[in-house]
Task: structure prediction
Amino acid sequence: PALLIGCVFAFSLLVGSFLNVVIHRLPKMLERQWREQADEMLGKEAEPAAESYNLLVPRSRCPACNSEIKAHQNVPVFSYLLLGGRCASCKTRISPRYPVVELVTAILSAAVAWRFGWHWQTLAGLLFTWALVALTVIDLDHQLLPDVITLPLLWLGLLLSLAWSAGLRPPIPVDPNSAIIGAAAGYLSLWLLYWAFKLATGKEGMGYGDFKLFGAFGAWMGWQMLPMIILLSAFAGAVIGIAMIALRGRDKNVPMPFGPYLAVAGWIALMWGPQIVGGYLRVSGMSE
Result:
């Protein structure tokens, strides 16, 4: 177990570095695609791109001086510490968010390896975790949960249910019936809540990406976990939202992304969902 956890931790530092690229570039790539589609609909001639821009090219650059970041300057966490958190060329301060994302990704991934051990469920749990890290930070930055992440996550959960057997340890994968019902129930429950809130207030309470992410959780962990996930996410959102209004004076009319709270609750359900539900049922039974 120690060997597995250590290897997963080290590898996930590299994955966290790549997730930083995804978090920074994917919203820009989507915005460019939307602009091109809008120009096409309006009959405008699209301007040729100055250079290719995707998750692989161009190489990472300092946003201040535009100098390329060399490979030895891009070692997760360690390069940030050795450079003192500043660009090697212009000495502009580098956001600490980059090493934080790398370190959080590695810690969460190591926890997944500890939870599932030497089993293919560990690989599934790692993919689930990495997707949630990217979605969380993108939603915090742009209030956007990209379909290119949420929809593959949903379909992967449904496909994993085909490998279900009674001998596997919970919570993944679940049986196909629970996965299919969970995906539909997760999406439709928030979709109905969205329209009920909109009809009642004339405002949009959440985005469509939240529906898809919640549906993905249902596909991965079954409809049985959805009540716990939504309760955990709503509780976290309420506590943090009230704290930000009280301590920071945040305007309560300014929308806050719900995706990060869903992601945290979904990851907790992945790790300890059955134990939490079972513990609650035992306590409820004793109290009765």
Observations:
- The chain has nine helices and no strands.
- The mean pLDDT is 88.
- The CA atoms of residues 63 and 233 lie 35 Å apart.
